[in-house]
## 1
Amino acid sequence: MSHFDKIVDRKGTSCFKWDTVEEGVYSFTIADSDYEVPKEVKEALLKRVEHGIFGYTVVPNSYYEAVINWCMKRYGFSIEKDDIIIMNKVLESISLLINLYTKEGDKIVINPPVYPPFFALTEGNKRVLSSNHLINDNEHYSLDLKDLENKFKEGAKMYILCNPHNPVGKIYTKAEIEAIVRLCNKYDVFLVSDEIHSDLIIYGHEFTSVGKFFHLHDKIAVCISPSKTFNIAGLRIANLVLKNEEIKANVRKHLERYKIGGANLLSLLACETAYNKCEYWVIEQQKHLFKNYEFARDYLNKEVPYLKFANPHSTYLLWINLQYLNKTSEQIIKELKEYKLAVNTGCDYCKDYDGYIRFNLACPQSILNEGLKRLAKYLKDQE
Ligand SMILES: Cc1ncc(COP(=O)(O)O)c(C=O)c1O
């Protein structure tokens, strides 16, 4: 049996996905996966834990080399040690950049439907949301570049791009990325690219990092992380990649001022080991992901042929349109509980998407099968 089809009981491990649902409920919620980390990562952590002392830590050069090599190998752009700022979380990086490079009342552009904390970070910091909605053509999502330019013309100061896009799974094309960077440069917009899902590519698709276009614009930040890729979100680690010297100095100054950022010795070790030794594991995971996506697509097409959902290029997320039920996402979530199924509410990603749900495919296929059965049963009972 493949590593990714092995069932590991996560109940009772302070696990958000499985310990926040009632007994018997199958959970396909928060964006982590149900797989054990690669054996190399587990062994390195066990060895380090065995040592028994966890005092203050210095980041080894080998850590930076691992990140530099990963960026070149996986994303095709070149960075140096000084370009990497180690953070606890991608959201911590975005929050810091919002606070440093925009002020209260400034407009920040995002692409709804999108990862809910982008709304919270913008409005919670008293910035103004400027929504460049993705165009939804029968669950095929595309970027409205013309509207994006209009938003920039209206004076937006920052653009938070989610590439690959959570929840619709879109990967922007190279041409789109270049056009975005050029527009940011033209209108002097700070571009923050959240690329946390960029290792989870579904077969046949190709990812282009904004990092390939640092030369076209000064105000660029690329947020990468091993957390989704290797299922280590609980260890907390992310890398903020910057090229502009002034921005790097300013970010470092503020990290020092507030004594934030950095990561713990176990997450540094996990990231370095994974990047150095586990590329093969990422490729295996991509195959599993593709298999799970095909399985879900074929199952749903057969059992509930009228159902519409996005065809993800990346991520392990299935974005499902249940608006035909004429119910709110919240109502649907509540009713699904009766069917012992937990998923995410679509309206959190944009109010216009009330009635959608997000279903996490990152699990063994037998678990997925059970979840899909419950979903199909619920939908058939609504007919
Ligand atoms: C697009 C995106 N960005 C950021 C995060 C959170 O990352 P972190 O835990 O490193 O803040 C997630 C988690 O689901 C995500 O999907």
## 2
Amino acid sequence: MKMLLDPMGGIVVTNDGHAILREIDVTHPAAKSLMEVSRAQDESVGDGTTSVIVLAGELLGVTEPLLDRRIHPTQIVQSYMKVLDDINEILRNLAIDINVDDDAEVARIVRTSIDTKFVSRWGSMISDLAIKAANIVRVKLPNGKYEIDMKRYAKIEKIPGGSLSDSHVLEGVMFNKDVTHGRMRREIKNPRVLLLDCPLEYKKGESQTNVELTKESDFAAILRQEEEEVSRMCASIVAVRPDLVITEKGVSDLAQHFLMKANISCIRRIRKTDNNRIARVTGATIINRTEEINESHIGTQCGLFKISKLGDEYFTFLTECNNPKACTVLLRGASKDVLNEIERNLHDAFCVARNVLLDPRLLPGGGATEMALAAELSKRAKIQEATVREYPFKAAASALEVIPRTLAQNAGADVIRVMTALRSKHAQGENFWGIDGVSGKVVDVRESQIYDSFVVKEQIYRAAIESSAMMLRIDDIVSGTSRGKAGQEGAAPAVDEETFGDSRDG
Ligand SMILES: Nc1ncnc2c1ncn2[C@@H]1O[C@H](COP(=O)(O)OP(=O)(O)OP(=O)(O)O)[C@@H](O)[C@H]1O
Ligand SMILES: [Mg+2]
């Protein structure tokens, strides 16, 4: 784990690769571009952000001796691209198919994604949350494929206090709001829900609006106009007999009065994103003009609307939904720092659960895949027709060993012994031997159930190799900033105008 101080003086405690890199401040352009790789990894597959950086760094490190031996970078890059093709082919042979309908099998992979994390102490709890959430959010598209949009439809709500074991996935959503008026109903069974994204009050002007009044009676007329408008809007709402009205905008006192008379509870100023989730869980349609409301817009899939107090704040729960298709994961924990790290871990688990449900293939974890690749690549290095090609192949093979080596180090094992044992196993073609991260022993990962998702691994190798190849193609850093700024430690030295022109031509 790393503890990071941010410029504002706050602290972040994490071992999530992307979260660490996001916080640190680097000036070297090459380092900056490597950090982009980890961000891209986080966005595309959500896991493996540490591995990709470690591997890319190592791939660059092993080329240094090659460059010293005057092998041209272009040749190294070409070989690396061949290595990438070979890796993809080897990976396809190593992949194991699983059955996504078997929750236990999915759970094992999701567990591996968080095994090296803070939350691993709570066993399968976090992975169960992730799988449950992913299954709720999963919808079948007309073309037979699945769509799992965790970012939009699975929300994580962190509430400090309580214990982690109180965390759960709601069959519905919750948000930090209370009814607008204390005397409205706070608990309704099978509510009829109406969602709006328009205000139930006078319309505010787009920008500054001036109204000039000359007579006192004009003012009264304006107020009456507003009153009539609000009462007309409320009348059209009351006509469809909802129990609960939720709007993204404001609700005036007058509108509250009309709604309360009709025994309707009302919640105002919720976020657009929350409203979208509510629409998914209740089956309601979000309406923009009150005149258009009709029966089909009312949501009736929700079983229970309830407002409860957690800590000292009120939260609205819309739960017991039938076929929710969106959910909230309620996280409880000792402090904010702990909750933030749990959220990051859960995000990884979400992504792995999603990846596995979308592409049900696995690869052995615990460094086994990397060792298998290294063994196979060294074998192939010998049969390269062009002799120089052999060296980058070997170098890439040894770079891949950084993953098992790091795992061994972090498990407190005797690194040299473990690596030698692993190498000899893989030389005999036993592809499933890796490191148990808890005991530090060399084990068959199939027995220890350490698996990673195929998409994540594939993406790690591709991103690491492509980014290091791109770095290798660079022969000079030319600074576009002024001499004063660029002179900082680690930054590229400032270059004269003329050289700038030259390098670009070259
Ligand atoms: N119980 C375990 N024993 C051995 N290796 C494990 C175990 N659990 C996970 N691993 C390995 O740890 C690696 C993943 O580590 P980790 O999740 O910390 O980093 P990451 O996925 O690269 O980045 P991120 O910080 O984004 O999660 C994988 O190679 C995986 O196979
Ligand atoms: Mg991970």
## 3
Amino acid sequence: MSTTAGTSLANWAATFDFQPQEFHTPSQLDEIAAIVRSSARRNGKLRVFGARHSWNPLIATSQTSLSLERFSGIESVDGSAVWVKAGTTIHEVGNLLARLNLSLENQGDIDCQSLAGAISTGTHGTGIGFGPVASQVSGIKILHADGSHRTYTRDNPEWSALVISLGAHGVVTHYRINCVPMENYSMRSEKISWDEFVSTWDSRSYSTRNYEAFWFPNHDEVIAKITELSQDTRLQLPFNKSGVGARLENSAWWLLSEVSRLGPRGARFAAQTAHRLASDERCNGPIHRIFPTDRSVRFFETEYAFDFSVSSDLLRELKRWFQVEMPYVHFPLEIRSCAGDSQWLSPTQNRPTLFIAAHMYRKMEYRAYFKQLQAIFDQFGGRPHWGKMHDLEAKQINERYPRLSDFLKVRRKLDPNGLFLNPYLERLWGVTT
Ligand SMILES: Cc1cc2nc3c(=O)[nH]c(=O)nc-3n(C[C@H](O)[C@H](O)[C@H](O)COP(=O)(O)OP(=O)(O)OC[C@H]3O[C@@H](n4cnc5c(N)ncnc54)[C@H](O)[C@@H]3O)c2cc1C
């Protein structure tokens, strides 16, 4: 086990940093258990992190910080389900499953998150037929504050509180993931008019395996991305998914982002150029190869989840607002869908969902932009993504997440002394222990 004192840690977007008294990177289960026991004995605080890709300080602590990056790999296979160690990254999971001719059924647009980090925050991809990554979980093993290491399955009465939990119940050590056979998919993007996009969003979301769109605000076209099952077994990746191509694309994006710092005209130029340069992309292959993108230009992001039924009203309101108030943003809005989910803290809990994400280059002011968007999102009852930026406080979180109080009862039972809390979670949920 590697243990360090005096480390300073920051997240991917550098929106926060923290200096834990102790930082551990154990590779064995008994080492993780010893760290939990020792923190509990001292009545301390412990937070575990994955790839540090969340924007909010979910993982910040001044006491014990734990990374499971050295606790990774598939532990056992049971038909099409596998037990995976929680520190395994989505990227590693994809490659390991491919060797078994298996696959995750869906994933998001990067793959460097840890499995536990992605699952614990309700991370999702797009596709109205698929829940967040957490919905693929059929078993979970958690090391609790009392030192017990318990295995839970879907028949447990508290299951809905256990999978999306922001690390509040303990250290998750393993997940049982229900996989699907590895298949090939074709992905293509095309530009369509805004009006056509809005009027067909519902029907195309339901008739396409994975449908999403990128909209550069104030442009009268959107870039729609469509993924379908394919009989073509060739792996065809576009240039921007090769090492060199991804670096070139990121360099071009960095340059446009720098141009957008020059002011509104720069931002408009950058957005128009990016939209123009976005070619009709095509690729083919398994999802772990064609879905992930390489994002090296750092940015701020906010994302909210809405009842899918408000889609066209909300999209029209956003278009109106951008026209009137905020014409120049060079990052596109990302518009995705997701199936409803039973986890109490799932952004998609109990409703098919529309997700809308907005971004801003990390060297630019984002607060006013996100605040104004949040005011619109509030009107439509949006639930914030736990890992992405928002200003909501406990009262609003309670309103948006109707099963939060049920979740908190389970949390209190499993961690009565608040070993796994930090000041951010206390504020977010309005709890002390
Ligand atoms: C460039 C970029 C692209 C992104 N794309 C998407 C996307 O397509 N879709 C989407 O929904 N989100 C997306 N996100 C958000 C991201 O998926 C989430 O913030 C996710 O939580 C990050 O995973 P992580 O491994 O970095 O977790 P961290 O940020 O390190 O941790 C997140 C949470 O998981 C908990 N946790 C981690 N490991 C454990 C464990 N072993 N036991 C218990 N709790 C644990 C932590 O305590 C914390 O509460 C993106 C983020 C970035 C920066």
